[in-house]
Amino acid sequence: MRENEVKLRAIAAITAVRSGAEEQLVSDLLGEAMPSSFLVPAGATPAEAGCAVLEQLSEPLSALVNGFLLAFDALADAHDGGEPLETSEQILQHLALVLALEDPPQPDDPTGL
């Protein structure tokens, strides 16, 4: 699947969620962007096999993320172009704060994540 086709799947998934589509449809749309099989060199060690699979997943995953970012940026521009009560940046900051409070860092986690 070409990169733009994968980006279109991301945009379709967002559109489906916003229109109230069933979770399975959204999952199927995103799943279509992922390879259904992987090529692993004959005689590959487990580490080599894992690297081969990750390498084949990285391009479609990157394209999905880029599609989500493209869609978000377009929506944020449209939202912020009006006269919203809150900018998209403020909404994202609030969302980040809510998520951080829902999952506070553990005392034994040196990263604080």
TrEMBL record:
Return the protein name.
Uncharacterized protein
Q: Which organism is it from?
A: Streptomyces globosus
